[in-house]
Write a structure and sequence with these properties.
The protein is mainly alpha-helical. Helices cover 54% and strands 10% of the residues. The protein is flat.
Length: 61
């Protein structure tokens, strides 16, 4: 059910013409790359450590 809300949220961001201005990451161990692709997120972090590493790459830190 949560993944459906994620997909709707990302669609709303697209409709607001903001999608190319933001990066979207989903996370937790129950999510995976298949769900990331389904909802349209840019990345998936399996835990906080991985999510921080991804975010640092995005900002060049």
């Amino acid at each position: 059910m949560t993944k459906n809300f994620m997909k709707v949220t990302i669609e709303e961001i697209k409709e607001a013409d903001l999608r190319d201005k933001v990066k979207i990451m989903i996370g937790e161990d129950q999510m995976d790359e298949t769900i990331r692709e389904h909802v349209g997120a840019d990345a998936h972090g399996k835990d906080a450590v991985e999510a921080v590493a991804i975010a640092k790459k995005w900002v060049g830190a």
